[in-house]
Amino acid sequence: MAGRFAPRTPALPTPRTSTGGGTGTGTSRAKTRTWTPPGDAFELGLVLGPLRRGPADPTFRTAPDGSAVRATRTPAGPGTLRVGPAGDGTVHAEAWGPGADWLLERLPEMLGASDDPAAFVPRHRLLAASQRRRPGLRLCRTGLVLESLIPSILEQKVTTIEANRAWRHLVSKYGEPAPGPYGESPDGRRDSRMYVMPDARAWAMIPSWEWHKANVDAKRSDTVVRAARVARRLEEAAGMEPEPAAARLQLVPGIGPWTAAEVLQRSNGAPDAVTVGDLHLPGIVGYALAGRPDTDDAGMLELLEPYAGQRHRAVRLILLSGRTPPRRAPRMSVGRIAHL
Fold it and tell me: Locations of Low complexity compositional bias (predicted)?
């Protein structure tokens, strides 16, 4: 659950844009929209940071001016969206591809328009201080399930570095270049291009040896394939209340509460979706709120009970506070089932 954009990213090409129609290639004109976020504070990096899967995510980039660029697969098709501050308290967005209209229509939702930070009442000094320091936190709502589900499955029981590497390898190989200028490679390097993730059929057709090359074990790859085969039904969860949405996702073998929560935090903007089953989170919450780094899931949920309805926001604020327990054990090792 990253709070800020990572500082080191590949250089982005300068977009060639103007208002009006046109989709697809880098020579097409961008469609645009300007939107004014509610409230006095808004931090784009805090809102969209959780959508990024590592500093080299081929579907997500940041530009030197603070803009964020997403390449995603919408119900209308692939789309690329660039969002950045306009300097007058507004946000300016440009979009390319068949999914451009879909992305621009849902821009406010993605940037947290339906989120209600005022519903959170801090009951710990740490959280009150964190909220004061980062008043621009909003919970995004993408309305897209599969784009968060697959990388979350890849993160099961492995290090974040390992999961991000697998996501990058598979998307770059089986995805398609992002519509608009960011799908181009001005310097001829493949890793300078952005990609839209594969569609459901492409995920289901990835051969076993490619999962092996991506260092993804059979348990996780099988779960991705099962999810891809019922992708349409899973995408419906984005329009459901969090509890039935989580139940829908968990009908797929291999998807449990941890994965469902990670998805719904992003696709539904669910403020109460707590990630249980995480290796480190209970200790972080326990240490921050009670000085107990040995807290388990049950203890974490007990400590978060005063924030029922807003427990995910409480966790985000804890992570943003920077108060984490001292490390007592070695970092989880990166397993290798193949050499990339």
Answer: 1-18
**CATH classification at residue 46:** 3.30.310
Question: For residues 92 and 112, what is the distance between their CA atoms, to the nearest angstrom?
Answer: 15
pLDDT higher than 70, residue 3: no
The range of the structural domain enclosing residue 49 comes to 31-133
C-alpha–C-alpha distance, residues 319 and 322, integer Å: 6
292 domain-assigned = no
CA distance 155 to 254: 12
Looking at the structure of the chain, the number of domains it has is 1
- For the residues of 142-199, what is the DSSP string, one character each? -S-SHHHHHHHHHTTTS-HHHHHHHHHHHHHHHSEEPSSGGGS-TTS-GGGS-EEPP-
Tokens representing residue 100 in the block = 């451009």
Instruction: For residue range 131-175, list pLDDT tens digits in order.
Output: 999 999 999 999 999 999 999 999 999 999 999 999 999 999 999
Cβ atoms of 211 and 198 closer than 8 Å: no
Cα-based distances in Å from 111 to 46, 139, 147, 208, 263: 10, 7, 17, 37, 16
Q: What is the pTM of this model?
A: 0.88
Interval 20-31: pLDDT, tens: 333 334 447 899
- Residue 340 pLDDT > 80, yes or no? no
CA-based R_g, the chain, Å: 20
pLDDT at 108 over 70: yes
